[in-house]
Amino acid sequence: MANDFTRFAAVAAKLAREHGPRLAAQVVNSPPVRAGREAITQAVTQTVNQALGLESPAEPKEFTPGRPVTRTSTPTELMARGVFYAPQLDGQADPGEVVWTWVEFEETTGPNAGQGKDRPVLVVGRSVTSLLGLMLSSQERHQGDPAWIGIGSGPWDAEHRPSWVRLDRVLDVPEDGIRREGAVLDRRRFESVAQRLREDYGWT
């Protein structure tokens, strides 16, 4: 009996050495575990926001007279630079944060000329005078569009709808014109956006 147990223990130890790391990697990278990590990240973010007194994003607000407006955008490849994840809820907005700004519509003629909308924007960098941001949208028509990338839902949308990030235009966002709600995109999803910027638009 003792010999049988010894042989069984030896076989079990060998299997653990040979297959344990692979099985562990499969479990860690499985969809349920990834979904659980994302849910925990969102819950922690919301808890931190509440502790810091940062309110959840409300419905987009009307334009406030005197508030600087985001009216300039540039093809993303012309703004190529290094992109890195560095959100810090301090005095300045940093890459990885989602902020709100009034964005003018692209139409220069017609009934929408000069009009705009309060929109969430993902900060991906900054210039000397302003933030560099990518516009977010909850419109499902962007699914499958190569100029957009899906990032799922987050605290920047009051209805927790899935969102997409526009990749082909970079907004020049006046920092004095943003509204910060304490929303932060987690590192994994930010890196998926950054990777597309590197692969398709020459960022580093």
Summarize the structure.
This protein is of the alpha+beta class and 204 residues long. The chain contains 3 helices and 8 strands, in the order H-H-E-E-E-E-E-E-E-E-H. 31% of the residues lie in helices and 25% in strands.
Description of the molecule:
- There is one protein chain.
- The protein is α+β, with helices and mostly antiparallel strands and 204 residues long.
- The protein folds into two domains: 53 residues, no CATH class; 146 residues, SH3 type barrels (Roll).
- Helix content is 31%, strand content 25%.
- Strands 1, 2, 3, 4, 5, 6, 7 and 8 form an eight-stranded antiparallel β-sheet that branches.
- A hairpin with a 4-residue loop joins strand 3 and strand 4.
- It is elongated and about 85 Å long.
- About 6% of the residues have low confidence.
User: Structural class per helix/strand content?
Assistant: alpha+beta
Annotated CATH topology of the largest domain: SH3 type barrels
How many separate domains make up the residues?
Answer: 2
The DSSP helix count reads 3
Given as residue ranges, the uncertain stretches (5+ residues, pLDDT < 50) are: 48-60
CATH architecture of the largest domain: Roll
| Radius of gyration from the alpha-carbon trace, in angstroms | 22 Å
| Portion of residues within helices | 25-40%
The overall average pLDDT, rounded, is 79
The geometry reads as elongated
User: For this structure, what is the CATH class of the largest domain?
Assistant: Mainly Beta
Please state the oligomeric state of the protein chains shown: single chain
Total strands = 8
Distance between the termini: 63 Å
Pfam families: PemK_toxin
GO molecular function: DNA binding
InterPro entries: PemK-like
Protein name: PemK-like, MazF-like toxin of type II toxin-antitoxin system
